[in-house]
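Possible regression after last week's pipeline update?

I re-ran a chain I had predicted before the update to compare outputs. Posting the input and the new output here so someone can diff against the archived version. Not blocking, just want to make sure nothing changed silently.
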Amino acid sequence: MPLSLHREGIPDYIRRKGRLVNNTTAGARAPKLPSKSRSSLRYAGPAWLALALLVAACGDQGKSLADAPRPSVDVAMVLSKEVVQWDEFNGRVSAVETVEVRPRVTGHIDNVAFKEGGAVRKGDVLFELDRRPFRAALDAATAELERARAAAQKAHLQDMRAQSLIADRAMSIEEGESRHAARVQSDADVRAAEAAVTTARLNLEYATVRSPIDGRASRAMLTAGNLAVADQSILTSVVSQDPVYVYFDPDEHSYLGYQANAAQGGGKEADLKVHIALADEQGFPHEGIVRFIDNQLDPATGTIRARAIIRNPGHTLTPGLYARVRFAPRGAATVNLVDERAVLTDQDRKYVYILDSGDKAVRKDIVVGRVVDGLRVVESGLSQNDKVIVSGLQRVFFSGTPVAANMVTMAAGTTARASTSKN
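New output (post-update):
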């Protein structure tokens, strides 16, 4: 109603030209009041005016809030479906076999017989040492073997003759025993000579250094003319290419998920499939199997070393390359999903606004998981029957705000990520 200050606002008195006058007796002089009363009456008029204006304003505001249109928001049902939650880690490609090629004999290098950095097969010639000293040693050992065999043949004949003479009592037993011992010794000399020939033949063979595995060779560490010392000098290295290992370090949470999955399978650790991608590859085009998990976690990092083996027929996975490793330690599970745009943050807590039965936006705290195909996994706090506000959140100022809901389908927003990743 219109506001006016009438005479009842100041009982019996009004202020005129600095003096208080009784409003019932015009011209009669009012009795003087104490200074404190005069001071109070001085501010009574403005106070009453302010109070009346405030009451009128509040009444108008309450009327305007009640009549204001409800903000429009988009609401979607919580999406519940079976998904595979992938864990992603960084890893390194490693060769299954790595060999440092060293000579087995000492000699000077005559020839480097391989292409540096090229593919080699098991048995391919890599280096050739000077063979002449080893050929000479083999010839000497062969000659010594022939001498030993001749001596052994003579000792055999003498032993046989001695046995005959002893039977005829034409030779002493002591002499016969001496000839028999000479025969045994000559047989041992033959075996020693044969071993020397074998060693010399091996040394001659070792003068040709061959690749011990299929793979790819590195550069030549020593070139022609240099002395290669047996079991010391590194001539080159060869790494296998197919298959390859990928080492990575899952965290404790992923490892526990793997153990839980294994327990559901009867306690037997099953082969865990992994997907591999290089730094420049889209998706995860390579597939492998985890065949090794270490026996303890690293307490400093909270991770455990794991190793996957991957086929590499195209030799694109070069040892030492950085790789992204993705695997699902828990397998497939049914989870609740919401558009990531609907998830809000209050300090360290995550929450969403849901639509209650009275068409009001009500806050609900949640615990979130990873992002799957642009939708955020909600581990707790929501049921599949909840209706979540996914758009128009800027018009919801507090829990309990009345809204006008438009039902939409739960889908990933344009700002949500399209790939699966760790939180």
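Follow-up from reviewer: compared with the archived run. The first helix runs from residue 35 to 67. Marking as no regression found.
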